[in-house]
Amino acid sequence: MAPFPEEVDVFTAPHWRMKQLVGLYCDKLSKTNFSNNNDFRALLQSLYATFKEFKMHEQIENEYIIGLLQQRSQTIYNVHSDNKLSEMLSLFEKGLKNVKWKWKPLGMLRETV
């Protein structure tokens, strides 16, 4: 089996940026003079730009990252569902039924397994 490719960290940098923006606004809110129209307008414009960035971040996650995670999850699920254990057990059971036992009857063998 080929080794898995090294994981690409698609979460740290984008989510660090989102945390950075939230922290930035905690600071801006405390420093904004809401009585001053220019200060208030600047805050609103800045918030608008930031929320557009948040929306773009979510779109990228939804279009690319979530799809890759779903694909990976499906691959992992298929690895576990695509094993042939049930088929092999059935073949062993058929084989055991057809074998003539010299020492133990088949019923006794099943009890020990």
Automatic annotation (TrEMBL):
<protein>
    <submittedName>
        <fullName>F-box and leucine rich repeat protein 5</fullName>
    </submittedName>
</protein>
